[in-house]
Amino acid sequence: MGSTNSTLLKIPNVEVLMQETGFSPAHIIRLHDRFKALDKEGRGHLCPHDFGAIKELAMNPIGDRIIGAFFSPGKETVDFHTFVKILAHFRPVDKDRPKEPNSPEPINSRSNKLKFAFQLYDQDKDGKISRDELLQVLRAMLGMQVTDEQLESIADRTIQEADLDRDDAISFEEFRKSLEKINIDHKMSIRFLR
Amino acid sequence: MFFDQQKSVMAFLQHFALLLALIIVFSTSCKAVTLEVGSVEVGYNDSSKSSATEDTSTSINGSTDGHAPSVISTLPIVTWKWHHIETPYLVALWILTCWLCKLVCELNHNVTSVIPESGLLIILGFILGGIIWGADKAQTFKLIPTNFFYYLLPQIILDASYCMPNKLFFSNLGAILIHAIIGTCWNAATVGTALWACYEGGAMGTLNIGPLQFLLFGALISAVDPVAVIAVFEEVHVNEVLYILVFGESLLNDGVTVVLYNVFDAFVALGGPRIDAAEIFKGIFSFVVVAFGGSFLGIGFAILLSLLTRCTKHIQIIEAGFVFVVGYLAYLTAEMLSLSAILSITFCGICCQKYVNANMDEKSVTTVRHAMKLLANGSETMIFLFLGVTAIDTEIWVWNTGFILLTLLFVFIYRIIGTFLFTWMLNKFRLVPIEVIDQVVMSYGGLRGAVAYGLAALLDEDKIPEKNLMISTTLIVVYFTVILQGITMKPLVQWLKVKRAAHSDLKLIEKLNNRAFDHILAAVEDICGRIGDNWWTRGWNRFEENYISWLLMKPKARKNRDYLFSIFHKLNLEDAINYVSEGERQGSLAFSRSDEAANVDFKKQFGSEFADVMPNIMVDMSNYELGIEHFSVTSIVKDTIPSVSLDIHGQDRKNAMDDINAHHLLQQHLYRSRKHHRHKYSRSHFSINQNEDEVQEIFQRTMRSRLESFKSTKMGVNPAKKITKHHKKELTHKMPNGHPDGTGHLYGDEVDIAVGSETGAINSTFMRDTYTVGAGIENPVFLPDMDSPTHSPPWLMETEAVAPSQRAQRRLPWTPNRLRRLAPMRISTCSTDSFLMADVSLTLEEHEEHSQTDHVEMRPVFD
Asked: Which residue ranges does the record annotate as region Disordered (chain B) (predicted)?
């Protein structure tokens, strides 16, 4: 326990972080270890190329987008707090925890999880998934087997399904509506972060 | 209201009376026949004999009466040969009876919504059994374990496993296995020991049962029956996780039960005193070997089956049959090796489905699906009915209040305890815990069925003196669970507000995002640096894709089997079907020719704003469909008719002129299959009248016309413009003159050669598409005749006036241009013929205006 506390003490504002993310001390320590392992040069923050060094991630078709999600626009680095906060999106929702009436919406709420997914598509941050943005993701995920022509018709159809105001793009509201039936808590949660 | 109800009741009664009459006639005729033949009571049991003596008696009768060999005074014209056909006849009659019973059950939905079908069938079985009893005064028909295990059960298990939602199954595999294996052992052990304890405590009087027999009984009674469970849960529509848990558990649990049963059976045979630690260890070891051996055998057969279907391209008609035969062989082989047959066929079905479905022709896949449902549903019906029929027998009923009631109690209680216990343990590890309500339904859904009865009937009376008590207890447990729990399941689910299955339409965006989520989760796990579920999933998927698919799938199937794309394809097919059926429902197959129809939003979401969206799509299409814009752009501009409208009349008036054109185009350019004198029946092909040459020919024509349109665009013709006659002049001048027709000729010749002498008549059609002919003739319809009168096919001669006849007004059905949007991948070469539509408009007007010069140039080609 002594080592636990000493590690925790090294992290500034750890209490606030735990409160915001809902992670237990054990999680924070584990993530902190991981953070330090990724931060090979010991600068206290991570750069995109630190993420790029993860081999599996490089093979992920939308890996670069996910890396991009860690960096707020214009910033080249991510510190431990942001790192943990972003990972907190994937914490399963805990039902037993009493809900405080005026507490802010937790990071791992359904709509925050959805927002995370949405921004992966919406690369130009205009609040809409345009046809081109969708096409890029589709191309990355579907690979070589599908021709461009087919990709386009898939993209058209996808947009058509979600697009309620017929602007040929998917806004976040439309995105959320179209995924209403999906159990996001289930699909966007990782067990070991519980 | 009242009358309605009365009417339906009357109808029901009518049907029922009909059925009863049928049954009575049937059973009495059997009886009469047997008496007439003068045999001893023919104890016929379902489909084969139960005892050797009866067998011999029938065969004796058969030889004496059936053949009537010895003394005949005169040549008999017809003879009565009941014994020749007795067995198959009765089997067929029983199948008919069972299915008629199902028909009766399904007549009234008010009844089936209260009592599940399985329960109804059992009750009908009671009635039928009573009739037979009344006629024969003995039980002549009952469910025999051999028939059940070899002829009725396999297809049900195969169907259940072949249609198993794989992803759901494997993602919940842990929970399913825990419940199926440990849960079953727990049930068997606790029920057995608790009963034994009660027996020792004196609750059942004196019975000749030892502790091992109690355990054996506990094993057989713990078989949660997939047949019963599916039958009940299908009507309840619980959420998918709960469904897969109950369903998967019951499926695997059957296999486990049988294994457990065999182990305990061996222990009983061995006798109590000789069992020591080594034997117990051997028993456990055997349990593991039998269960896992059976599963691996099944996987082996799945691989075999997948490999087989890789090379059945040339025997498409019977390739569907392989699934059944190999599946059945998996079952029998496991039985032969004394491995778990149920587990074997289960895993065979689960593992092969993906590859088999990809390898086989789409039609065969449909065949398999339907045939499997037919077999499974059919035998399920028979099983339940016979469970009812079997009950009407004085011999098996041995009543022991203590034993029966205690069994019911323990079965129920330990099921609940077991479920809660194991779920509690599982929930510590599950991402999404199983809720308490779901646990209640799970434990309540422990329906016992025919497997338990079959196992009980298999008991050896020498070893277990109280066999009949066990059978009757099992039957009571089955009736209790299937009928009572089945009836109460639905109200319970409603009362507990169990999360129901959200019935939703297939949506591309959901599937797309599911895949994105998978990638995201895998990436986050990588970032966290921990090996989690998604890591394993991804690893398996990669392995599967790289090695297993490579081995088990046809290269072709492998190529275009992207999941998202197949969803897309499926959606498109649905839309196309909906579209056609909607058109037909509105009383006409006459589809609008204008391209709006092609882009109808089938969900009618677009409504009147359609036109806004259209240009976008049209531009996309224009990339690959050149000529089409001639129609589309104009029609969008002109027509403001809502997109969904299939009402053609509005457009008729406007586009009368277009119609006339279309009429010509259709007349001339739609492919007409020529009359071939071929066989009307073929055992090995469905499409008997489709000639290879014909397909080839259509393909050639299509390619040719596309080539032409390609050429024309290359020369700077802009087909997007509305082509008026003025434009036309330019265009047609350019076309033939600006380009040497050498290539065209060459191509044409090739086509002729390819098509061969048989299709010589089509020459004119080729030429007519693109080459202008007929000096000074204005009406294009007559052009072909001028072109090469001797060759022109007879149907062209028929075409006469250009008046907008009935036929002219008939709109073009789905042209491939439209279908293309629907299902870009699967368009066959056969249907692409109407691509001509696109180009033809150009050529037609060529015909009209500038024919002379071209004609001179072209002429040599024809000769």
From this structure: 45-64
CA atoms within 13 A on the CB side of B248: 25
| C-beta atoms of A160 and B601 within 8 A | yes
* B521–A188 CB contact, under 8 Å: yes
H helical segments located in B151-239 = 153-162, 166-171, 173-177, 184-200, 211-221, 226-236
Instruction: Look at B510 and A181 and tell me if their CB atoms are within 8 Å.
Output: yes
* Separation of alpha carbons B838 and B804, rounded Å: 21
**A141, A156, A158: residue with CB nearest B617:** A156
Answer yes or no: do B512 and A138 touch at CB < 8 A.
Answer: yes
**Could you tell me how many residues make up chain A?**
194
The per-residue pLDDT for range B121-173, each reduced to its tens digit, is 888 888 888 888 888 777 777 788 888 889 998 998 999 889 888 888 888 88
Distance from CA of B519 to the nearest CA of A (A): 7
Question: Residue B485, Cβ neighbours under 10 Å: how many?
Answer: 20
CA nearest to B570 within chain A: A154
Helix (H, G, I), strand (E, B) or coil at B804: coil
pLDDT at B605 over 50: no
Q: Which of B85, B14, B395, B136 is nearest to B128 (CA)?
A: B136
- Note whether A173 contacts B: Cβ–Cβ < 8 A: no
Is B427 within 8 Å of B453 (Cβ atoms)? no
Whether the CB of B516 is below 8 Å from some CB of chain A: the reply is: yes
Task: Give yes or no for a contact between B46 and B143, defined as CB atoms under 8 angstroms apart.
Answer: yes
d(Cα B18, Cα B13) in Å, to the nearest integer?
8
Cβ atoms of residues B326 and B306 within 8 Å: no
Structure tokens at B434: 């199983």
- Taking only the tens place, the pLDDT of each residue in B786-804 is 444 444 444 444 444 344 4
CB atoms B507 and A168 under 8 Å:
no
Cα separation, B578 vs B630, whole angstroms: 27
Interface predicted TM-score (ipTM):
0.90
